[in-house]
Design a protein that fits this description.
The structure is a homodimer. Chain A has one domain: Phosphoribosylformylglycinamidine synthase subunit PurS (Mth169, Chain: A, 2-Layer Sandwich). Chain A contains two helices and three strands. The N and C termini of chain A lie close together (about 5 Å). Chain A is an alpha+beta fold and about 80 residues long. At the A-B interface, strand 1, helix 1, strand 2 and helix 2 of A face strand 1, helix 1, strand 2 and helix 2 of B.
Chain lengths: ~80, ~80
Amino acid sequence: MKARVYVSIKPTVLDPQGQTICSALNGLGHKEIASVRQGKYFEIGVSEETSRDSAVKILDEIARDVLSNPVIENYRVEILD
Amino acid sequence: MKARVYVSIKPTVLDPQGQTICSALNGLGHKEIASVRQGKYFEIGVSEETSRDSAVKILDEIARDVLSNPVIENYRVEILD
């Protein structure tokens, strides 16, 4: 089973890396770009014996405890098949 | 208009960072996790005057030329509204 976990910085938290990318794009002539925020993205393979329900539970736990910092980041889990 | 750009390492390219996360998760007791690959994720705000068609064109150009390295990475652009 394949899953994807997306981790993004909460909207209330400053993202200097994204702001730098935004200024760089504006400087390169892409004036249409108003904002950029950078996040992380994980493609996770789960062993086939795991049921979908337990995969959802495990991945939620992993995303919360290991892949993200819940104080400043949001996460989203997507099961593919 | 909001858009998302996902950049992931091509399947044929080694991802030591993902392998390290996978071993760490296995070590923490999550034996169900078979593989992890890490990518990048950008949330991009495009100015409202830009039409959807030209936004798609601009974002594809930005994803190819600035946000990813096409030699080792794939990208995917998603327009939200």
